[in-house]
Amino acid sequence: MFYKGIYYQIGDVIKVIDEDDGKPYYAQIRGFVQDQYCEKSAALTWLIPTQASPRDRFDPSTYIVGPEEDLPRKMEYLEFVCHAPSEYFKSRSCPFPTLPVRPEKGYVWTHIGPTPAVAIKETVG
Asked: Which domain of life is it from (predicted)?
């Protein structure tokens, strides 16, 4: 979506400034909405800082995915921070790749044609 000279896309990280305390809060765009009056909005997923998150700037490797907001926010309140893949913060426990749960061998074991009689006989007996 093109808005005020910036091309936004799903996955982008944005900043929202709280009116009460003036602190920045970060979120990732998960979708766009445009109403009948051509007013543009974005559906957000909030990003939660960890203890390693710097206070003066945004470091994506130190944030984890948070709650998804139900109602879209108007684009006029969002400030572009950076482009990011839409699945960058997908893991709920860690924003960077984790160790696989089971071994990843890189191939699928399959057999083409009828099952050999030896294999059937071994499973029955």
From this structure: Eukaryota
Query: Rounded to an integer, what is the distance from CA 102 to the centroid of its chain?
Result: 23
Segment 27-60, tens digit of pLDDT: 999 999 988 888 999 999 999 898 888 888 888 8
- Residue 29's CB is within 10 A of a number of other CB atoms, namely 24
Helices (H), 1-125: 117-124
The answer to whether 1 and 40 have CB atoms below 8 angstroms apart is yes
